[in-house]
Design a protein that fits this description.
Blueprint (H helix, E strand, L loop, with lengths): L17 H9 L3 H34 L3 E5 L2 E5 L1 H47 L2 H6 L4 H40 L1 H17 L1 H30 L1 H6 L3 H51 L4 H48 L14 E11 L2 E11 L4 E5 L6 H8 L7 E6 L2 E2 L5 H7 E4 L8 E2 H6 L6 H10 L3 H6 L7 E2 L8 H13 L5 E5 L7 H13 L5 E5 L11 E6 L2 E6 L1 H7 L1 H12 L7
Parallel strand pairs: 5-12, 5-13, 8-11, 11-12
Antiparallel strand pairs: 1-2, 3-4, 3-6, 6-7, 9-10, 13-14
This protein binds adenosine-5'-triphosphate (ATP) and magnesium ion.
Length: about 600
C-alpha cells in the first residue's frame, strides 16, 4: 500500500506544447500583452536614443567641439546643449514609461491568478460526485492555492519575456545601425548560447513537473495529518506521523532545490558569456577598424545593455518553462472536473410522487458490481428503512437515490419518468439528505442551517425545532449567531447531527434521506427526533439507513440489502416472519436494547 502514491484518476499524460499552455495562461490577455509590447518598444527605443546621445556628448566633451557625426546610416549635426536637451527629454519619457511597464504585468498576473482560481472552482463545483469523491484529500486546496500561484508566476514571466525580447531586438537593431560587425558577433553568440542551454532548460521543466506532482502529495499528507490529529495523539504515533510528513517535505525539497538551481544556473552561465561576448565584439570592431569615439562608445553601451537583456531573457524563458507544468496540472484538473459534469434534463419537477428502481445495478469498478438488479417502488409519504450488513451497498443505493451517482444499468424512475429528464435545480429543492457524519461550516448556527439557500429566519427556527435543537441553541449566549464548525468546541457530536437534520428540513423537502442520523444521540433525543419525523410523515417520503433497530420504529416498510441485492422489502411484521437476516437482527436488538445490527 502506498500512502503517498498519486491518485489523480484519468489524467492525461503530461505532454503539451508550450504554445498551448501559454494560450491557456494568457490567451485571453492579448490586448494587454499588446499594450506591454507597445510600451516596451517605446521604452527600448528611448533607451537606444539615450545611449546614442550620451556617447556622442561624451565624445564631443573629450574633443571640445559640437557634434557632427555620421553614425552608421545616420548623419547629424547638433550642439552639445541641444543633445543634452534631447537626452533629458528621452530620460524623462523613459521614467514615465516605468509606470505602465510596472502596472500592466502586475495586472495581467493578478487577473490570471483570479481567473484560474475561479475557472477551476467553477469546474469543480459542476463536477460529478464520482469525480469529486475520487480526489485525494487536500488536492483541490493545493491546486487552488499553491499551484495557481506557481502558474501565475508563468504569466509574470511571459510578460517579462515580451518586454525583454523587444528590448533585446531593438537594442541589437540599434547596434547593427551603429556597427554591423560588432552587433553580428553579439547576436551570433546569443543565439548559439540559447541553443546550447536548451537541454538544461528541458531538465528544469521536467523537474518542475515532478515538483508539481510531489507538492500535491505533500498537501494530501498535511490535510490527512490535520484531520487525524486526535487519533494521532491517542495512539501516540506523533513521531511516525512526523516522519511521514518529513519524507514528503524532503521529496519536495530535493525537487525544489533542483528547479531553483536551474532557474539560477542557466542565466548565470549565460551571464558569464557576456564578457566573452563583449571582448569578441570589440575584437570584431578592431578587425574592421572603427575610429569614431562617439559611435564606438554608443556601440559598447548598447552591447552591454543588450547582453544584460539577453540574460534577463534567459531567466524569463527558463522560469516560464518551469511554470508551465503547473499550468498543465491545473488544466488537466479543470478538464477532468468539467468532463464529468452531469447532464441536466431541464424538465420541470413540481413534486415528487413515486420513486422506483427497475433492475438497477451499480459498479464503482467495471465488472465488480456492488448493487445488482435492485427493483422497488415507493409511494409519496412512505417511510422506508434500509438495513443490511456493512459493505452491503446501502450508502451506494442512497447515493443513486439522491442522483449523486447514476446507475450503471437499469432505470431510476420518478413519477414514472426517467429521473435524468428532470432539472437538477428542481430536484435539489425537493430532496434533502443527512449524512452519517455531520459536516458543519465554520460559521454561525443560522448560516449552517441556511446553507447558502434563500431561507428566512422563520424557516430556520421551524427546522431547528423539528430537529430538536432549538432549545439548545437559544440556551447558548449567542443563540443562532453562535459560531460552530468542524473544530469549534461549541457543539457536541449529537448537536452537530441535529443541526445537520435542521439543515435538511429547512427547505421543506418532499424526500428526505438519512444515513443513520441518530447514531450520536441519547435515547431520549432519538425518540424526540423520531416523533418529529413521524409528524412530518404526511409531508415527505423518508428513506433511512438503520444500523439500530430502534431507528426502524417510524418506518412503514424495510429494505433488506445483502451483498448488493435487495433480498426483501416488506413491513416489519412480515420480515420478522420471513427474513432470516431481519429476524436475527431483531433478536440481537431485543437482547441488547439499542443493539447494533450485525
Ligand atoms: N467510492 C468507492 N469506490 C469504490 N468502491 C466503493 C466506494 N464506496 C463503496 N465502495 C464499495 O462498495 C461496496 C458497498 O459500499 P457501501 O458504502 O454502499 O456499503 P454500506 O452498506 O453503506 O456499508 P456500511 O454499513 O459499512 O456503511 C463496498 O464493498 C465498498 O467497498
Ligand atoms: Mg454506508
Amino acid at each position: 500500500m502506498s500512502l503517498t502514491g498519486p491518485s489523480e484518476h484519468g489524467e492525461r499524460s503530461p505532454q503539451y506544447s508550450m504554445r498551448s499552455q501559454l494560450d491557456l495562461l494568457i490567451g485571453d490577455k492579448r490586448r494587454r500583452i499588446a499594450a506591454v509590447s507597445f510600451t516596451s518598444t517605446i521604452a527600448a527605443l528611448t533607451e537606444a536614443g539615450i545611449f546614442a546621445v550620451v556617447a556622442q556628448v561624451a565624445a564631443a566633451l573629450v574633443n571640445g567641439k559640437s557634434v557632427h557625426s555620421q553614425t552608421g546610416i545616420f548623419h547629424f549635426h547638433a550642439t552639445i546643449g541641444t543633445l543634452l536637451w534631447i537626452g533629458f527629454g528621452l530620460a524623462l519619457l523613459r521614467l514615465a514609461l516605468q509606470w505602465p511597464l510596472s502596472i500592466l504585468p502586475a495586472r495581467i498576473a493578478a487577473d490570471v491568478q483570479a481567473g484560474l482560481r475561479k475557472k477551476i472552482f467553477r469546474s469543480f463545483a459542476g463536477a460529478s460526485w464520482d469525480v469529486q469523491s475520487r480526489d485525494r484529500e487536500g488536492q483541490l486546496q493545493e491546486i487552488m492555492t499553491n499551484q495557481t500561484s506557481q502558474a501565475t508566476a508563468g504569466a509574470l514571466q511571459a510578460t517579462a519575456l515580451v518586454n525583454t525580447s523587444i528590448t533585446f531586438v531593438i537594442l541589437m537593431a540599434a547596434a547593427v545601425v551603429l556597427s554591423p560587425p560588432a552587433a553580428g558577433v553579439v547576436l551570433g553568440i546569443a543565439v548559439l548560447m540559447f541553443a546550447l542551454l536548451r537541454p538544461l532548460r528541458s531538465l528544469g521543466a521536467r523537474w518542475a513537473r515532478e515538483l508539481s506532482a510531489e507538492q500535491v502529495r505533500y498537501a494530501g499528507g498535511v490535510a490527512e495529518a490535520n484531520r487525524l490529529a486526535e487519533e494521532t495523539q491517542v495512539f501516540g504515533v506523533a513521531g511516525a506521523q512526523f516522519d511521514r510528513i518529513a519524507r514528503l517535505v524532503d521529496a519536495c525539497r530535493s525537487l525544489f532545490l533542483r528547479t531553483q538551481v536551474m532557474i539560477k544556473l542557466v542565466p548565470n552561465l549565460y551571464q558569464s558569456f557576456i564578457y566573452l561576448l563583449l571582448i569578441a565584439a570589440l575584437a570584431a570592431l578592431h578587425a574592421v577598424g572603427s575610429g569614431r569615439a562617439g559611435s564606438l562608445g554608443a556601440v559598447v553601451l548598447l552591447l552591454v545593455r543588450a547582453a544584460q537583456n539577453g540574460q534577463q531573457l534567459q531567466t524569463a524563458y527558463q522560469t516560464l518553462q518551469q511554470s508551465l507544468p503547473f499550468v498543465d496540472r491545473l488544466d488537466r484538473a479543470r478538464t477532468r472536473y468539467a468532463e464529468s459534469s452531469p447532464a441536466d434534463g431541464g424538465g420541470q419537477l413540481a413534486s415528487v410522487g413515486t420513486l422506483a428502481f427497475e433492475n438497477v445495478s451499480f459498479a464503482y469498478t467495471p465488472g465488480r458490481p456492488v448493487l445488482s438488479e435492485v427493483s422497488f417502488a415507493v409511494d409519496a409519504g412512505e417511510a422506508i428503512g434500509i438495513v443490511g450488513p456493512s459493505g452491503a451497498g446501502k450508502s451506494t443505493l442512497v447515493q443513486i437515490l439522491l442522483r449523486l451517482r447514476a446507475p450503471s444499468a437499469g432505470r431510476y424512475l420518478v413519477n414514472r419518468g426517467a429521473v435524468e429528464q428532470y432539472a437538477r435545480a428542481d430536484w435539489h429543492r425537493l430532496v434533502a439528505y443527512v449524512p452519517q457524519e455531520p459536516r458543519l461550516l465554520h460559521a454561525s448556527v443560522a448560516e449552517n442551517i441556511r446553507f447558502f439557500r434563500d431561507l428566512d429566519d422563520e424557516a430556520l427556527e421551524r427546522a431547528a425545532r423539528l430537529a430538536r435543537i432549538h432549545e439548545d441553541i437559544v440556551s447558548w449566549p449567542e443563540g443562532y449567531e453562535t459560531i460552530v464548525g468542524p473544530r469549534a468546541d461549541a457543539v457536541s457530536g449529537g448537536q452537530q447531527q441535529r443541526i445537520c437534520l435542521a439543515r435538511a428540513l429547512a427547505a421543506r423537502p418532499q424526500v428526505l434521506v438519512l444515513d443513520e442520523p441518530t447514531s450520536a444521540l441519547d435515547p431520549h433525543s432519538e425518540t424526540l427526533i423520531q416523533e418529529s419525523l413521524t409528524a412530518l410523515k404526511t409531508e415527505l417520503t423518508l428513506f433511512t439507513i438503520a444500523h439500530r433497530m430502534s431507528t426502524l420504529d417510524m418506518c412503514d416498510r424495510v429494505m433488506v440489502i445483502l451483498d448488493g441485492r435487495l433480498v426483501a422489502f416488506d413491513t416489519k411484521a412480515v420480515l420478522i416472519e420471513q427474513n432470516p437476516y431481519y429476524r436475527s437482527a431483531s433478536m440481537i436488538a431485543a437482547g441488547a436494547p439499542g443493539g447494533v445490527l450485525p
